[in-house]
């Protein structure tokens, strides 16, 4: 009997251990979180990986970066290469420069596709969870939801404008677009490509839903405010060629610019260039970078380090004539390397990262073009002159066109002057491919003695093998 | 610019003619720094080990204690010394209560000799001498930086950028580390009832490590970093301390405890007709690791003070126009001045085991176990998965009908069980895992987070069902003991990191991806070949054979030939072994020295992009098909000789071919590079591709991976090795219990099936130069692969003394 008591005691103590077990195991490791609180969801936007259009691999306490979205730079018409200066270009950049159908190595992670879809996961995660997060007011959480939707729209907009045909109202309902990813489901296979119309509808819907809830004030150039939201919706319409719709949104964005905690204004290059680019120096990186550049509304940048430092991509001399010799933007280019040795053509040395997100110069240029396209040539000229006055001495900044079409062409050229050798021109080439005003133009690229011609099919990147071999449902472009 | 490049460059520019260039190249070629490397950077490895053990005690208390000291000198000039003290005590408190207590304490001090940034010594340029005839260090600044860059940089920064490896040895990082570990382990056995025992085992362990590394301000890397953060205006402005060295400290602590309580019952009745054993218990464990490390620049070990610098600015805003940039011509500070970590794992297990034997012949047993760990990032439902097994055995030799005089005992066994692996806690589960990602640009909008690992709510346990049949036998008067096992293991829902569809946001993730089947046989035998008074000879043989096959593959299957040919040999393909190697059919070099292979239509292909999956063929498995060892033991009077031969047979490997075929030659490479294609016609005598200096030309004109993945570079990996040979002699003494002298040689002989002097055991496939999909630029930079040293023979001499 005495033994029995002992036995029962031991058995009982073992049972006690089992019951305390769940609590014992429920410890939270330090340094890791599961997304639960308002602070977590807010923090997911404050992630340096989302700053650039580039591949990134998250690791604890940081991330490693991969290739950036640099193909637009080498596909734009105004650039040329020189065989002696091409060694630092990646094979995909050389292929894209030649406007070849197949650009990527078979096992190469394609930045132009992946960079956007990698970021998109985070936004979908926020969209799914933020409203039920702990902490934060309902209004704050709705603002985060709106910000994530606006970001998701931007990701789809970018990837659509690299891998699908330019928007054409007549064929958009049948032209293949890109997959729409609206659920964070990492281990599943993505669905097939939706049509260009469906993707644009999705983008416009996300943005339209988001705008009322977006933060009224721009608190940081790394967060989407209502200003950036209006801008992005305007840019989407602009890209679709719906210039009157675009103008409403872009005007609204411009009027909201002052709702900002960070300075928002154009730089006067007539003043700044002497500080940024003293005549004696050939060194790159002369403009303020990310957080301090007052011309940027929301940062989504593409690193230009590789081009700015290696003199591999040049401005084709045929395009130099679009600049007035007094245009301060010419100082963004150099014809000598850092050591002062001559290079064959002008190469862009600044900025070292170009913002593809909402920015004030692009806002001015889009508004001017929308006004010109909708018949308000006077308004367009006023805006354009205000802008040009910040880029060159006022005696050459004047705009004198009276013909609407000539004015539109001049504004498109102004866009090129502003953005030559940054890749932003590529999106204009696509947009204008359906525009009778610009039809019949042939674009060529030169590298040494070799010449390449852009065909309509190659306004669209083919789906990388890396993507379609994994997911055969994602069909290729011609 | 390296010295040999300077000669070629001067010749190209016409500064010197060919004969002078050749003369200078010849004089470089006559230099060999191998003996200087051994003299200045290496030491002979030596391990000394001293142990003293004592034991004693009586019926209530007995003890066993040992004190040990080990000193280890490694070839790379690192030294370590270890002390440890162990004491085991047994207490028999009452006949029914027994207690044992093990206490141990150890202390280890190590000092590493670490030449930061030095090229690997086994591929160091042979002509780069380290010292002159008088033993004074020689400058190798040319190997670090082109003097056209270095001299102006020195002038602008006023910092010397010379690099003299022998001087550097005095400023090099010295990593001093000291580790203390203490452990207490107590066991309690209480006999509760006849056959019923309670057993408890309790362990507590704690350890701490402190280490520091100091890199002197005269160290090349410290000097170079200061130059990175110097702007000449025109006088140098230093953004990092120009005096003082780099001081890194680390402190780590670990504590762990474990508690195991179990009840066992062992009883028999009816004169051993029925025998029952039951075991049930729980185990609880906790491991906690914490650590902190700091990194300080400008530290003066004499004053114990450091010079502050603006870390925030240097990390977030690049320094423009530094004397030499570290980041695209600008300079940014990388790394953290403080890192801290804490990890805790907790486990709870329940287990039980039951065995029943009838009539000493028929045995049934069953076991079950449940393991649980921290719940973070996983779901409780994923954790309560018991693993179990059931088995039966039959002692045939105890049957009355069994009359085989040669067979002393014979037992047949059969077991079946389900084992499992839960998804690793934290690597994937129903929740996304975030990690903090602070960055100074975001300070106004709140702390930053990134998704570290995505959720995968479809994860399930990896399960393995094992069917095992076995036989244990003793034959010929117990002269031969034999064990044979045959098994069939079916693993389903294998867990690992696999490629994902990037369109959904991840390149790869932790997932279930397929099923694997392993079948095999394992055999071991011990035979006492000769047993006599003065001479004994016994042999132990082990033999195993395993075949495995991926029976199902979900998720993302490899769809490009490159993914099949990649180095690791881990391309999972349904229907093939999990360690399959694939290759291309070699078609020789073309008349420009570019590699070619045949596709499945028999046409020659020059570019890997033109290959399809059908052009790749199976070349064997990288896992040995047969493996095992043979030990022979001879004893003659007081002499004893034993040796062990191990063998691994039937598998394949890729030759570790040189990967250097373009770009700058900056380190020593394999000798057969000399036999490469040099001029048209050479393709008839060699398979080694041409060297093309320009990396982009090399990359766009040929696919070197065709050569590396070709079938000519697949060879047998079979080998056998005489792993150790020991000879000992027991010295007859009157006053000692035993005095034994022994000598041992390890890694004595090696036989390999390949003729390329590759030691398959030491061969590392991961280092193989097969880079797939790499572009022209990276192929140009790809470094030559140098074969690691063969496993070296080493010698041990020992003396065992036991006192009476």
Query: What's the count of strands of chain B?
Result: 35
| Sheet/helix structural class of chain B | mainly beta
Helix segment tally of chain A: 18
Assembly type: heterodimer
Q: What proportion of the residues of chain A is helical, as a percent range? A: 40-55%
The total domain count of chain B is: 4
What does it look like?
The complex is a heterodimer of chains A (478) and B (804). Chain A has helices spanning 2-19, 21-25, 38-43, 71-75, 91-97, 111-129, 138-163, 196-210, 226-240, 243-256, 269-276, 305-310, 360-373, 377-388, 394-397, 404-419, 424-432, 465-470, and strands at residues 54-59, 62-68, 79-80, 301-303, 314-315, 333-336, 342-348, 353-355, 444-447, 450-453. Chain A is mainly alpha-helical. Chain A has a domain at 42-57 and 78-181 and 189-265 and 357-470: Alpha Horseshoe (Serine Threonine Protein Phosphatase 5, Tetratricopeptide repeat), CATH 1.25.40. In chain A, helix 9 packs antiparallel against helix 10. The N and C termini of chain A lie far apart (88 Å). With 804 residues, chain B is mainly beta. Chain B folds into 4 domains: 1-30, no CATH class; 31-334, no CATH class; 361-465 and 475-514, no CATH class; 563-804, no CATH class. Chain B has a 22-stranded antiparallel sheet that branches. In chain B, strands 25-26-27 form a 3-stranded antiparallel sheet. In chain B, a hairpin with a 3-residue loop joins strand 12 (338-358) and strand 13. The interface between A and B is large, with 96 and 87 residues. Chain B: One of its GO terms (cellular component) is cell outer membrane. Chain B: Keywords: Cell outer membrane, Membrane. Chain B: It is found in: Cell outer membrane. Chain A: Keywords: Cell outer membrane, Membrane, Signal. Chain A: It is found in: Cell outer membrane.
